[in-house]
């Protein structure tokens, strides 16, 4: 149905609300409601009215600002991911080198122990 109206479906990673622009919009709306009603004693009909007003007041510029912020954050995550991946590969190679030198050392220790038995 969405494709019929030329909407693009965008899957977001779970547990990463900071990569979802609507979370920032909801935060803006909730902040506006708190500013109007700091004591939280508003009746439901007024709350609905004020919420609808806050939603309608949200500009395209605000949406674009939050979307740009999310894109920057995503790029930072990708950069950090690449750094972490590179570090992990380096660590794996380092550990593999250590295992090889440990095996050589263990062999030398075995030979030394056999020589000591011969001297007894």
From TrEMBL:
Region (Disordered): 95-120
Ranges annotated as biased composition (Acidic residues): 96-107
A GO term for molecular function: nucleic acid binding
Protein name: Tc1-like transposase DDE domain-containing protein
Organism the protein comes from: Araneus ventricosus (Orbweaver spider)
